[in-house]
Specification:
With about 290 residues, this protein is mostly helical. It is about 55% helix and about 0% strand.
Length: about 290
């Protein structure tokens, strides 16, 4: 399938329907793009928007964040979830400040070398911040390509080499156009080709979508289980971190104990937070965010 079969209609659709998001604005900085990409992982745009704005107002550059303790990044992360991302962003900021003169690097390899930055984020920042030509494969893009080209309702659970090759083959040759194409496909997956209720009637490539033409066959792969939250260690960890974020200094263990009834689960969650570097155990039974 030639890229031109999909590129023009999807780019045209994006020009008319793209959401007005601050990290897509012409004045958005590469740092703002990097922060958005980390925050958006497994987190809806609506939850990211206010935190992103507060983060950029407080730390408009990597050097500004690097100058503060990592615990402040965890505190400002709020309730976005998966708070280790805050530590990764702080570690990246320190590396950018120390190794790149405070400027987010513009090469894929240099981005990939930053602490906690994987292949997706490196490709996304290189594309969206610097207009380069890279295959950017997030969950939305993988789903769109699985349906339109592969004829499958959902992509494989783990990203495959074949998916990367397909994505690369569909990239327009001109780097800035390729970067716009990548975000356009991502937006199509977020707004139209959604996981549970795809709106094929609004899709700009519906007439050439392999999945629709095949009658929208149901997914027959391994069970796709949604992530539970209530009662999990994740919820417990969030409750414990909330106490520490709201405190002005170290807190006594007793203040942590009252937020979760299951003592075994609570201790396991607290131990995990300490092991992940999100909580510092201090003398005299006190706990604090990392310094």
């Amino acid at each position: 399938m030639r890229s031109s079969h999909f590129a023009a209609p999807i780019l045209g659709w994006y020009a008319e329907n793209a959401r007005d998001l601050p990290w897509r604005a012409p004045e958005a900085t590469p740092w703002g793009v990097l922060v958005s990409e980390i925050m958006l992982q497994q987190t809806p745009v609506s939850r990211v928007l206010p935190v992103w704005a507060e983060w950029l107002a407080r730390w408009p550059t990597p050097s500004a964040l690097a100058a503060e303790p990592s615990g402040e990044a965890v505190r400002a992360w709020g309730r976005l979830g998966y708070p280790r991302r805050a530590l990764r962003l702080h570690a990246s900021a320190v590396a950018i400040a120390g190794e790149h003169d405070g400027r987010v690097p513009d090469s894929y390899d240099a981005l990939l070398a930053l602490p906690g930055i994987g292949s997706y984020t490196a490709a996304a920042v290189a594309s969206f911040a610097y207009g380069q030509r890279h295959a950017v494969l997030d969950t939305n893009v993988r789903r769109v390509l699985a349906r339109t080209v592969g004829g499958e309702e959902y992509p494989p659970k783990a990203q495959t080499v074949a998916e990367v090759r397909l994505a690369e083959s569909l990239l327009p040759l001109d780097p800035p156009v390729a970067a716009r194409w990548s975000v356009a496909v991502m937006e199509l997956g977020a707004l139209v080709c959604t996981a549970r209720a795809p709106r094929c009637g609004a899709c700009p490539v519906a007439e050439r979508c392999a999945w629709r033409l095949a009658g929208r066959p149901a997914y027959d792969g391994p069970p796709r289980r949604g992530q539970q939250y209530a009662g999990t260690d994740r919820q417990c960890r969030g409750r414990l971190l909330a106490v520490l974020r709201q405190a002005e200094g170290p807190v006594e263990k007793a203040l942590l104990d009252v937020v979760w009834d299951d003592a075994v689960q609570r201790e396991r969650a607290l131990d995990g937070l300490v092991a992940d570097g999100l909580v510092d155990p201090l003398d005299e039974g006190l706990y604090a965010l990392p310094r």
